[in-house]
Amino acid sequence: MDILLVASAFNSLSQRVYAELSDQGHRVEVVLASHGPEAVRAAVRETRPELVIAPMLKTALPEDVWQEHTCLIVHPGPPGDRGPSSLDWSIAEEASRWGVTVLQAEAAMDAGDIWADGSFPVPTVGKSDLYRNEVSDAATAAVLLAVERFVDGSFKPKAQSDPGIAVVWRDFLRQERRRIDWENDSTATVLRKLRGADSQPGVLDELCGREVFLHGGHGEDRLRGRPGALLATRSGAVCRATRDGAVWIPELRPRKNSGDPAPFRRPAASVLAGFPAPPGTGQGTPRHDGGPHWLPEDAAPLELPPERTTWTDIRYRQYGEVGFLSFSFPGGAMSTDQCRRLLAAYRRALTRPTSVLVLGGARDFFSNGIHLNVIEASADPAGESWANLNAMNDLVEAVLRTTDRLVVAALGGNAAAGGVMLALAADHVWCRTGSVLNPHYRRMGLYGSEYWTYTLPRRTGAETAARLTTEALPVSAVTAARIGLVDRLVPVPAQDFAGEVEHLAAALAQAPDLRARIAAKAAARRADDARRPLGEYRRDELARMRAIFFDPRAPYHALRSAFVRKQPSGSANPLATGGAR
User: N or C: which end of the chain has fewer CB within 10 A?
Assistant: First the structure.
C-alpha cells in the first residue's frame, strides 16, 4: 500500500514507523510538516497515498488533506485523552501506566475516531527515554494494527462519544507548572520535574544571574548544601542542592534572548564556564575539562557500590567471567571528552580477568557518534570536529584490536553514524527489537570514519554497505539482523533489556568453545592486518573527513548548524539524499 508519513520531525518514532511499515512491504514516503502546509499538500498530490499517517505532529494537518484522505494521528495518551502535553502530564501526575491512541484526524484536536490503542508501564526514567522506548513500542504496534484494519476494510473505528471512553482535556504544561522551588521542593519532586522535561522543553531556571533551561536529572546521596546552591561538577554535569539532598543536571540550554551565541543544549559545566563567577569566587584560569574554575570537580566513580545513589555516565561492573562497561550520554552524542573517558574506562576494563566484555547494555541510546552540539558551540568547529572524530576513532580502534576476549555491543536503543560503527567493531552485536539503526553519515554531509570502510562491508558485503551509506535510510532491528548488522535480536521490553543481556553474556562466557572462538578471532585480526592494516582504513577515511571539516563551504557546516538549532534544512522530504556523501 502507498502510505505518506507526515511528521513535524523525522524523529525516533517517525523513523521506526517508517522502517517497520517498509519491512511489511508498504511503499512509504515522508514529508516534514515543519516546511508548512503547502509542502504537505504537494506531497499528497505527488504520492497520491492510500493512507496518511502522522506519527509525530506539532501542527494540525491541512483541512483539505484530512477531508479528502484517511489520516491517522498518533496521540501519546490513552483513549479519550486530549491535549498537547499528554506524556508530560503522565510523569507530572506519577501515572503507573499510560497509553497511546491512533485516531482519525478531524477538526477538533485529538477528538477523532479511534483505530487502535495500546498501553504501557511508566518507569522512573526521563520523558525522552520513555518516548523512545515504551511509547515507541506501544505506538508502533498500534500503528501496524491500524494499518492492518484499514487494509482489511471491515473495521469500524470507535467514536470517542462511546460511553466506555472518558474524555479528559489536559492543557499545555507551562513553565509555571514545571518551575522548581529549590527551598521547598523535595529531591523526589525536583527529579520528577526534571524527568518530565529532560529533552524538551527543559525546566526554566536561573543560574549565576542568567536564565537557562535545565535538562535531565539524577539523584545524589552524599553531596549537600544550601538549597539551590551549585556544589560540584562531574564529567560535564553540575550538582545542585535541594532542601533534602542534591541532584545532578547533565545539560543546560541558555535562553535564546540571553545573549549566548549557542542557545542550545550542551554539557552543563561548559555552559556555566561562560557565565560570570558568583561574588566572592574571584577570577581564575578555567579548568582543563572546560568547567567553571569556581566549582570543585567531584571524581566520577567507575565502579559504583550497589548501595550508592549518584550519577555517572560511564560504569563498570563484573560478574564472574563477564565485564559490563555501560555508558549513557544525553542524546547518544559523544564529545571529545566523553570518547576519551570511555576509552580510558575501556582500557581499565581490559585489565580485568574476564573472557567476555559487554559494551552498552543499558536502555535507550547506544551511541549517535560525534557531539554536534559541542562542536557547534566551539570557537573552532572545524578543529573540534577533527578532535572529536579522532577520539571516536581511537575508541573504535581499541575495540577492534582487542584479541584476548570476546566483545559484545549490546544496543538497548537506537544508534546512528559513528555509533553504529562503534557497535560493529565488536565481535557480537545484540540489539533490542525496538531499536532503529542509521548506519550512514550522508545526511550530515559527511563521508564517515570510525573504520566503517572496514567493518561495514565485512558484515554486510560491499554492495549492501554501499546501498546503506548512499540511500541513508533508517533500518529496523529486524532488517539489521537480516542483512548482517546485528547478530542477535533481543525481543524484550526496554526495562528488561539489561537483565536479559546479563543472562546471554553469562551463557556466552560458559560456551565450551569460547577459547577456540577467542583464538580464531586473534588469528582473523592478524590475517586482516596482513591484507590491509587498520591504519590504512583510518588514514583514507580521515583524509576525506579532514577535507570536509576544514572547508568552510562544505555542506556539513550548514547542516550541522541547522540540526543543532532545530531549524529546517534542505528538502521537505527527509528521505531525499541531497548532496554528495
Answer: N
pLDDT of residue 14: 98
Q: Which pLDDT band holds residue 568 (cuts at 50, 70, 90)?
A: confident
The residue type of 206 is E
Looking at residue 580, what is its pLDDT?
A: 35
Has this prediction a pTM greater than 0.85? yes
Distance CA 40, CA 398 (A): 46
Taking CB atoms within 8 Å and a gap of at least 24, the contacts of 491-494 are 491/432, 491/433, 492/432, 492/433, 493/133, 493/134, 493/137, 494/123, 494/133, 494/134, 494/137, 494/363, 494/364, 494/412, 494/413, 494/432, 494/434
Residues 6+ apart with CB under 8 A from 131: 12, 13, 76, 87
Asked, for residue 125, whether it belongs to a domain, the answer is yes
Parent domain of 256: 175-273
The DSSP annotation for 328-368 comes to --GGG-B-HHHHHHHHHHHHHHHTS--SEEEEEEEES--B-
In a domain, 253, yes or no: yes
Q: What is the radius of gyration, based on Cα positions, of the chain?
A: 24
Gap between the Cα atoms of 481 and 487, Å rounded = 6
Q: Which residue has the higher pLDDT, 301 or 537?
A: 537
pLDDT confidence of residue 570: 76
User: Which residue type occupies 432?
Assistant: R
